[in-house]
Every structure is written in structure tokens, then in C-alpha cells.
Amino acid sequence: MTAAAENVASALENAIVAGVRGEPREILDCLAAHQPDVVFNLCEAPLGRPALEPHVTALFEWTGIKFTGSGSETLALCRRKDRMNAVLQAHGVPVPRTGVFPAIVKPVDEDGSAHIDAAVICEDAAAVRAATARLASPALVQEFVDGREFAVSLWGQGAEHVSIGETLFRNGLRLITYAAKWEPESADFIDSPLDYRTDIDARLRAAIADTARNAWRAAGAAGYLRIDLRCNAEGTPLVLDVNPNPELGPEVGICRAVQEAGWSWRTFVRQQVEWARDR
């Protein structure tokens, strides 16, 4: 997260980049030493353990420190795809069906496309069993929606602002694999560019934005959020993933999304700080 931290700090005067391993006492000592007005939270895996992501914001909440982004309950909820899906469904937000083939198998408690490759698309129950056996953690098995895929970035005090990019799959690639997300030299990365200039008609754009905003409300998000959606055969956007702590590095993720929407990075970062102060 060094690049993301430096990218955020570049937009703020007198910002201090405080890297931590993630020990609770270490974080509390850091807060005591610097006495920040606001913490711009970028902690994803304290002590190298993604499951501890919400614990850092819980420390901020416990000690009364204002911070950017979503709170501990939202971070904890979104870390479990099965629970987040149940909440989305309870709020009337469409998600892929279960018990339908082709299906996709993915870890229920991982993000960043961890363990995702072409083999997770399964045509029958035997393939699902084989894909599930490869995982060390519980699996989420749901319909593989073979339609257009969109990355939707939302920000504001109530998701007032939205930026929509479309992933363009080429040369037979059907989903965003781990390599497509993290290995720039790989064929999967090259074959899945994100484009903010594709033709999205007004009706579909409105449906995507409405679905994403409903997911924001269901998750209890704050500050900013990134949501992945795919359209089914009827053109209905379905939520694949809700990420309340997305990439903030330069020229990618939220940084690129806000710039594509006409915001400067400096304006976005400073506004996040002001919104955190107001909460």
C-alpha cells in the first residue's frame, strides 16, 4: 500500500505517512504520537492477515479518532461474500443465482481475485467439487453470469458521485483472474482492459448506478466504494462484489475512476477528509 499512501499524501499538506505492521499497541502508539485530526485509512491486512482488516477501524471507532472510508461493521460484512450477498438480497439488490450452471467457485472470504483462474468456471457439479477442493477456505458457488462486466466507483456522503468503467474481455478470457488484476505482463492482464469510454445507453447506465447505490446503502458504506457488476441475459445488473477498501494507487482503481469523472485527485482526497470530519 506504499504507492497508495504516497498518492493520498501528495494531495494533502502536512500529511504523515505512517506505515504499521498492524499490532494494536503499535497503532495506538502511532495515534498518540501524531494526534491526527483525521486518519486516511489504507489498512487492508494487518499483520498480513486480511481477516483483521475491520479491526483497525474498530480501534479508531473505540478511541474516537475520525477516519476516512467505511466503518468496521461494513468492512467486516464485505469480507464475507456469502453474508454480503444475503444482505444485498434482503435489500432487494440483485445478485447471481445459486444452483445454476455454469457456476463460478470463489473463496468466500478473500478479495483481490485471489485463487481466481479459468478453472473456477464450472459446467457441472463434478467441476464444482474439484474447484472447491482446491480452496483452503469455504467456497461461494453461484451462477457464472456471462455478460458485460462493469467496475463502478461511488463516492460522497451518500454515493452522489459515480464513475463506470467496463472490462473488455478478449481472446477467450471470460473473467477477471488473479493474473488479470495483479500481473501486468500476463496475457490475462492484457486481455481485460478497463475502459471508461464504451457505449452504455442511458437506461443501462441508470440501472447500473441505481444498483450500485442500493448496494452502498445495504452495506452501510461511507466515503467511497467500488462495486463489480455483470449484466445477465435480460440486461439486469447483478452485484458480484462490494469492496469498501479499494485500490487508491496512482492512475488505477478509485484514483483513475474519479479522474475519469472529471474530478482532480487532490479534490477527491481533500473532500474525503472533510467528509470524515463531518461524520
Task: Explain how this protein is built.
The chain is built from 11 helices and 8 strands. It has helices spanning 2-9, 24-34, 53-63, 72-79, 81-90, 125-133, 178-182, 187-190, 202-219, 253-260, 265-278; strands spanning 103-107, 121-122, 139-143, 149-156, 161-167, 194-195, 223-231, 237-243. A hairpin with a 5-residue loop joins strand 7 and strand 8 (237-243). The longest helix is centred in the C-terminal third of the chain and has 18 residues, at 202-219. The model has no long low-confidence stretch (mean pLDDT 95).
Mean pLDDT: 95
Count of discrete domains: 2
Biggest sheet strand line-up:
6-5-4-7-8
Shape: globular
Name the CATH superfamily classification of the largest domain. ATP-grasp fold, B domain
User: If you compute it from the alpha carbons, what radius of gyration comes out, rounded to the nearest whole angstrom?
Assistant: 19 Å
SS-based structural class?
Answer: alpha+beta
* Count of helical regions: 11
CATH class bucket of the largest domain: Alpha Beta
CATH fold title of the largest domain = D-amino Acid Aminotransferase, Chain A, domain 1
